[in-house]
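tmp note - YoaK family protein
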Amino acid sequence: MAERLAAWVWVGGAALACVAGIVNVVGFLGYQHQAITHLTGNTSLLGAALVVGDRQATLHLAVMLGAFVAGAALGGLIVQDSTLRLGRRYGVALSLESLMLLAAIPLFRQQHLAGPLLAAMACGLQNAMATTYSGAIVRTTHLSGMFTDLGIMLGHALRGMPVARRRLALCTLIIGFFFAGGLLGAWLFARVGYQALYVPAVLTGATGLAYFLYRQLRGTTT
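out:
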């Protein structure tokens, strides 16, 4: 449950939700209005492209979905567990995400498909890191589950049932920071274009370094 989540999970979840919000809005405002983390919408668009016979869109959307899955597979390969706890290789995964985002910037500028593909892979890697811990689900690149949980808790409140306040706080935190990332990403993109991606790249790199130092101070091993 959310009550058992350590403080570093809350801080990391908020930071990564902000990262995903920035990346997603930069992709949407930039290269072919391509949402990076919105797999539900991209899957629907893929179906529509297949029906109308748009081969270019079909290929584009298919490889976008594949890139996200590949990133998640890489995350599973690195972390090797579904339990959030110190001692797992989150620092390595975050550093790789940072490098992917940095590499995506010049490709975005050239309007090359490899730009959004690298961004999608980075987000898949990030989302794979934030999995389960004592029954609490943490996802940082999309909000459907968080909004669903909010609706469930609202229903419980209307019925006079107890509300999981910590879970409510977690959902609000993730939604709020994803939204803040979208605001920041849109503001930066209007001023510096694809250089806005330097912010999530630096943030993930710094978070990975901070996690590594924190883990060393706690005396844990990978």
